[in-house]
């Protein structure tokens, strides 16, 4: 992040990744603690989710006996899991975005200052998340409608309807879902670094993505693909691989995959922060480090002094 703001627009995908990976070296202790307390629990929960739900689902699929208690346990577990996932996802985003921005403005960085800033940042991210969730609900309704249409096409053996439904479902999942993910990630950064949130943050994110949509698509699709592969391997080897792999092998592979997902999630959070600055530079929107420094200090309730003695002299005159 040593490049002048006007040159950030020229960063390629590989440059963004290299820049993101190098950021933790600027404050290794802070990122180590963020990873240990926020990113690791989030990553572990994502993978361990299927490990705990698999036995319950197996019992429910058993045709013998009542499954009321199993369904109750499953619903309670799912509810707690979603709350945990939602909370730690926002907390991790707030911590990483705030820390990266602090380093970008040469602001003193520490784990304690990041944690102190999270409560105010969390409120803004929460409101933005609600707006994104409402948009995703509308998307899921449309997606579900075309899935039903696809089933109808299969039952009626209507080739034209089947082909149309497959194309729409594919485009909705691959294009719209990835775009919404990119919009959400960028809106989260906007909510932390700019005095807007909610629908306004989504609108600003939409404007910033213009001209950089392809780059955002590749980054988000790559991230989702890697996470999908990790989840798939964890499910096939650790969760369902009891008949083919020993306990020791499953523990080692599971630990490795959790560690790999931690790295992927941490790098992904830093990439979305760097990508925000790239988009700002591409649209020639000035990145005032002094104003950003003051904005970040506002989360901590810090006293912001006058920027120069010239301002005081002008007031005295």
From TrEMBL:
The chain crosses the membrane at residues 31-53, 74-105, 125-152, 159-180, 186-203, 215-239, 251-279. Keywords: Membrane, Transmembrane, Transmembrane helix. It comes from Ilex paraguariensis. This is Polyadenylate-binding protein 1-B-binding protein.
């Amino acid at each position: 992040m040593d490049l002048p703001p006007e040159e950030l627009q020229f960063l390629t995908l590989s440059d963004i990744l290299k820049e993101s990976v190098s950021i933790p070296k600027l404050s290794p202790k802070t990122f180590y603690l963020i990873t240990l307390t926020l990113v690791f629990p989030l990553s572990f929960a994502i993978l361990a989710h299927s490990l705990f739900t698999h036995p319950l689902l197996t019992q429910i699929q058993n045709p013998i006996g009542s499954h009321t208690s199993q369904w109750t346990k499953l619903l309670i577990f799912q509810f707690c899991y979603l709350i945990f996932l939602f909370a730690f996802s926002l907390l991790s985003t707030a911590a990483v975005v705030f820390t990266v921005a602090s380093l970008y403005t040469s602001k003193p960085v520490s784990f304690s200052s990041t944690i102190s800033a999270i409560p105010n940042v969390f409120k803004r991210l929460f409101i933005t998340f609600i707006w994104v969730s409402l948009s995703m609900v509308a998307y899921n309704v449309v997606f579900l409608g075309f899935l039903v249409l696809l089933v109808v096409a299969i039952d009626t053996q209507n080739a034209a309807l089947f082909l149309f439904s497959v194309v729409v479902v594919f485009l909705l999942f691959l294009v719209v879902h990835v775009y919404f993910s990119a919009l959400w990630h960028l809106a989260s950064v906007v909510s932390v670094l700019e005095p807007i949130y909610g629908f306004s943050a989504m609108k600003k994110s939409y404007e910033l993505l213009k001209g950089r949509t392809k780059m955002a698509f590749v980054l988000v699709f790559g991230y989702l693909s890697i996470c999908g592969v990790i989840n798939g391997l964890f499910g096939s080897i650790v969760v369902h691989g009891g008949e083919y792999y020993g306990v020791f092998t499953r523990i080692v592979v599971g630990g490795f995959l959790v560690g790999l997902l931690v790295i992927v999630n941490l790098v992904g959070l830093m990439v979305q922060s760097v990508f925000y600055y790239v988009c700002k530079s591409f649209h020639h929107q000035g990145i005032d480090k002094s104003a950003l420094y003051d904005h970040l200090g506002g989360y901590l309730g810090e006293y912001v002094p006058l920027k120069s003695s010239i301002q005081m002299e002008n007031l005295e005159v």
